Structure formats: structure tokens, C-alpha cells
Amino acid sequence: xxxxxxxxxxxxxxxxxxxxxxxxxxxxxxxxxxxxxxxxxxxxxxxxxxxxxxxxxxxxxxxxxxxxxxxxxxxxxxxxxxxxxxxxxxxxxxxxxxxxxxxxxxxxxxxxxxxxxxxxxxxxxxxxxxxxxxxxxxxxxxxxxxxxxxxxxxxxxxxxxxxxxxxxxxxxxxxxxxxxxxxxxxxxxxxxxxxxxxxxxxxxxxxxxxxxxxxxxxxxxxxxxxxxxxxxxxxxxxxxxxxxxxxxxxxxxxxxxxxxxxxxxxxxxxxxxxxxxxxxxxxxxxxxxxxxxxxxxxxxxxxxxxxxxxxxxxxxxxxxxxxxxxxxxxxxxxxxxxxxxxxxxxxxxxxxxxxxxxxxxxxxxxxxxxxxxxxxxxxxxxxxxxxxxxxxxxxxxxxxxxxxxxxxxxxxxxxxxxxxxxxxxxxxxxxxxxxxxxxxxxxxxxxxxxxxxxxxxxxxxxxxxxxxxxxxxxxxxxx
Length: 479
Prior knowledge:
The chain is α/β, with parallel strands linked by helices. The protein has 2 domains: 3-225, 3-Layer(aba) Sandwich (Rossmann fold); 243-474, Glycerol-3-phosphate (1)-acyltransferase, CATH 3.40.1130. The protein has 18 helices and 13 strands. The chain has helices at residues 3-12, 34-44, 50-61, 67-78, 86-99, 107-118, 131-141, 170-183, 200-204, 216-225, 243-268, 272-291, 318-328, 347-353, 364-379, 404-412, 424-427, 458-474; strands at residues 20-23, 122-130, 145-154, 157-163, 191-194, 208-211, 293-298, 310-313, 333-338, 357-359, 383-386, 416-421, 438-444. The protein is elongated and about 75 Å long.
């Protein structure tokens, strides 16, 4: 089954909290297994013994574990944490999430979670993983309900045991049924998403089962029962692939070459603006064809109807967002960027030449002072690009919008032009070192006039524009 079809079905189907959408975690919401990041951390810190490592490998490559076997494996894993504060483990979970787990989120899963949330369904994550593994992603997805393996504590410290039964196999569907009963959920109308052989009982326990990239036993059972499988895109091939590294090197090579040419030609002609325009146009011309990263733009006409303007971009990937910006705006723009960018080789020099306003986010007064030249830049006829979120997000979730860009546009008397980027993180997420091939989608929305805005209007405008981004990402325009 195609994810887009399912999203349309969810939107057109019954709504309300009496219908649940149950998502497994490892292999369903994320690509791979979050425990791998934990084992890697323990291995680096010499906390993982050879016996436990051997048992873990056997469990991951052998037949499906029974609930008793899985519980034994969990006890193996947490034995070394006895006596340590639970808060320390939760903090480690946050670090592991930011360091890699966030980048393994299936974007198809994220869109399905959002589609269920728009329908008012009760979204639940049911997983045998521990709270430290799943809590950061649940927060990012806005999922309130989590059934997971809970580690027992005494006075805030881990005891080396688990609370109750681990949600594994029959134990998982039992926990889900209890949740359904407590929350008045109609199981026959509800959805479940899972990938593991042990999750057949979970999928069989709802009226709308969705195997996701199913493992062999689950795939066979799904075919026998007529459950249509969903295929989520994975960036991992399971074999050595030099292409991402070469692609990324080419992408940065195109950037450095374009920046160097722009700086040189701008200096030769004593025209900084010409140099910047040459650099951005050259990067746009080189980067896509050389790297197999395509940019698909709808509403491009809106980028040209009112200039100068303050262009907003939602921000997840610095390099890919810059590629989209050069494709959409092309010439006649500068940017607002964090102060650290000024120290980057070549890029910092190009941005400095372009008159970029560098913001010190740790100092509010300096940030306000840095925006004043941007007002003059706009009034002189050059557009400004900025990210209203202020920083890159770890996932496709849209962060809160800051007010600076709204004040900037109102003071300069220019419109705001929203550029909504749908999937930059699929190509190169925030902490990625390499870029994937693929198509980045961007939608340029009609300019928003700031005529008549007063400081008292800003809060309402921030809310309205952010809502516009959310609505566009939920219902992508075709032209």
C-alpha cells in the first residue's frame, strides 16, 4: 500500500479519540534499533561484557524471542545500571536521540502520525524499548501516550529490575488492550503499525493492521491474512556505499567553487553584490546536476512578485536549505544567520561579503542591534532570508517561530514570503555527515503584506504564519 493513499483514507475516514493509532518504535517509527546506540555507548565506555554482547547478537539473528527470553535480555542490559539515578539514564537517552536516533526517523511514519493527530485519533507508541529510548521521539512527535518497558527504581535509583511485564509479543497486545479499555477505544476501528515477527498479535488485535517493512515471518503472516504492507524508505543499504560521501564532497566542492568565483569576480569588478549573485547562481547551476539532489518547487512565481521581501524558510538542514534558497530566490538576497557561521571557511567570507546579519543568540541586545543593518538592506532593495525557528530542528517537526523576522519586515515595510521546505531532513538531517540523493520539495506561498502592522499585531501574525506552514505541510499544494 502507498503511504499517500493511506493518509488520504485516514483524512476521509472516521475521526475522534475513540479510534487509536498504535505505533511500534524500533523498525517502525525509526529505521533500525535504538538499542544499537545504547550498546555502542556502553561498548565505548567499557560497560559491555563479551557474554552479554554474544547473547545480544544471538537474539538479534536467531528465531523470534519468547516474552521470557526478551525479559532476560533486558535484565542483562540493565544489570550494570543498578544504583544509578534514573535521571542519568533519561539524560543519556536525550543525548543518543540528538546524536543519531533522531536522524533515523522514517519521514513516512512522521506523516502518518500527523495524519492521525489531525483526525483527532488517540496516538499511542507501544514498544518493548525503555522510556529513555522512546521518550525523546514521543515528545518530538507530540505523542502523549507511551507503553514501554519501565525500569524499576527505589528512591530515584535503578534497581536492576523492570516494572510489570515488558510489552513484547502477547505482552504488548495485552497492554494495548488494557489501554483501549481504560480510554474507551474501539479496537475494530483502530490502526496498528509494526515491523517485527513478534508483533503479529498486536496487528491481529486491531481492525486496521499495517505491517511496515515486515520481517520474513510477519510478511508471510501478512500475506496469508491479506494485510497490505507499507514500505518506508530507508537510507541504509546494508553494504558499503561510497556514493553518499562522494555526493557530499561534490556538494561542498560546488559551494566552495561558487563562493570563490563570486568573491574573486566581486573584487575584480568592485561590486560585492554582483559577486554574491554570481556565487548563488553558480551554486544553483552546479549543485543539483552534480549531486543527484533535485529541487521541486511549486508557486515559484510568488518569489518574484514582490521584491524586496523577507523570505522565511523552515530550517532542518543548512546545506539543503541553502540549495533550496538559491533555487527559489536566485539573486538579490542576503540572509540573517547565527554568529557561528561567520567563522566557517569560505562560507563565512561569502556571507560577510553579502552583508549577512550575524546574530548572537546568547545576547538579545546584540541580536536586536544586528538586525538594524538588515532593515537598511531591505530598504535599499535587497531581500533578506531567515529561519523564523531560529535553529535547525532534529526532525521534520516545525519549531516555535521567533518574532525577529516579523519585526524586521514590518520596520522595513516589505512583505513576508514563506518558503515551506517539506523534506530537507530526508536528504541531509541536522547532524548528518553525508547527503542522500533525492528530491527536495519546496512551496513558495503568496506574499504576506505587513502594511499597517504595529508591535501589538506581531504575536497574532507569528501564530498565523506558523499555522500556514503547518497547513501547507499537511496538504501539499500542486501548483
